[in-house]
Design a protein that fits this description.
Its EC number is 2.7.13.3. The chain is of the alpha+beta class and 275 residues long. The chain has 2 domains: 130 residues, no CATH class; 137 residues, Heat Shock Protein 90 (2-Layer Sandwich). 53% of the residues lie in helices and 17% in strands. The chain is built from 7 helices and 8 strands; from the N terminus they run ααααβαββαββαβββ. Strand 4 and strand 5 form a beta hairpin. Helix 1 packs antiparallel against helix 3, helix 3 packs antiparallel against helix 4 and helix 6 runs antiparallel to helix 7. The longest helix is centred in the N-terminal third of the chain and has 30 residues. The radius of gyration is 19 Å and the shape is globular. The N and C termini lie far apart (51 Å). The model has no long low-confidence stretch (mean pLDDT 82).
């Protein structure tokens, strides 16, 4: 079992490095395809995407900039669940979990991330949502709002705690329902918290608060900025992806900085259980 996990971890690392090569603009690099499972399906999908973009770039010179941005966006979104999956597998392989219940949770989270990766590989060409898809293309489902947020924030708390962050949640006591595209909203949370891991100060708690006001859900996240980091060049693709997705749900997203504190607030329409 541990040997199999080790092989998968190495293969995931290979794919992650090759995605970075594509992100750098080298579309001639072949993606390594091994086995016959979700990861090999992902590799095959990325390779087909790579070939399709080569053909498109050759025939549409005017679309060069947009395609470059699209490749960067895909790489960004694919690398996030890959990184999380590597983290979960490392915890399992090196027995960093404390109880059997923790082990079950990490196995469950690994399975969830694997399905997320498979979904992304099946939907590679849907990533132009950032630039030119219609909001009507989102596949919306209705969820119990508190259960959904508990699930999404629970997934992120595992990753944050594994990266030595403290995590504080101020939950909502109001029952409500929310209509969202689960895979899209999960991408928003993955983008936000992957940036927190990169840029936040580990000595300060990550604070999350969500509440209901006038049939709107407000999700407020703040963290202290790590001033010891070197200047990092960012494409801003992640934030643009989040903005497009939230707007596609008829919501709003706002980011800002107050002294050394970075915050992000998401506003989404909801339906109260008694309305």
């Amino acid at each position: 079992m541990l040997i199999l996990i080790k092989r998968k971890t190495v293969y995931i690392g290979t794919l992650e490095n090759e995605i970075k090569i594509l992100e750098g603009g080298n579309l001639n690099h072949e993606i390594t395809i091994k086995g016959n499972d979700e990861l090999s399906s992902l590799a095959q999908g990325i390779n087909e995407m790579r070939k399709s973009f080569i053909e498109r770039l050759e025939s549409e010179d005017k679309a060069h900039l947009a395609n470059s941005e699209l490749i960067t966006a895909m790489s960004h979104d694919l690398r996030t669940p890959l990184t999380a999956l590597v983290g979960y597998l490392d915890i399992i392989e090196y027995k960093k979990y404390k109880t059997d219940e923790n082990l079950k949770q990490y196995i469950h989270s690994s399975r969830e991330k694997a399905y997320q990766i498979k979904y992304l590989s099946d939907k590679l060409f849907e990533y132009f949502i950032v630039f030119n898809t219609n909001d009507d293309d989102l596949e919306l489902e209705t969820f119990d709002g508190n259960e959904l947020l508990e699930q999404l924030l629970g997934e992120q708390s595992f990753i944050l705690e594994d990266n030595e962050f403290d995590f504080e949640i101020d939950s909502c006591n109001t029952p409500f329902f929310i209509e969202v595209s689960l895979i899209s909203i999960r991408r928003v949370f993955d983008n936000i918290f992957s940036n927190i891991i990169k840029y936040a100060d580990k000595s300060k708690s990550i604070k999350v608060k969500y509440y209901i006001q006038k049939k709107l859900l407000f999700i407020y996240i703040e963290n202290e900025i790590n001033n010891n980091l070197k200047t990092v060049n960012s494409t801003g693709i992640g934030l643009r992806t989040c903005k497009k997705i939230i707007e596609g749900h008829n919501g709003k997203i706002e980011t800002g900085k107050q002294k050394n504190t970075f915050f992000i607030q998401i506003e989404l329409p909801i339906k109260l259980s008694n309305s």
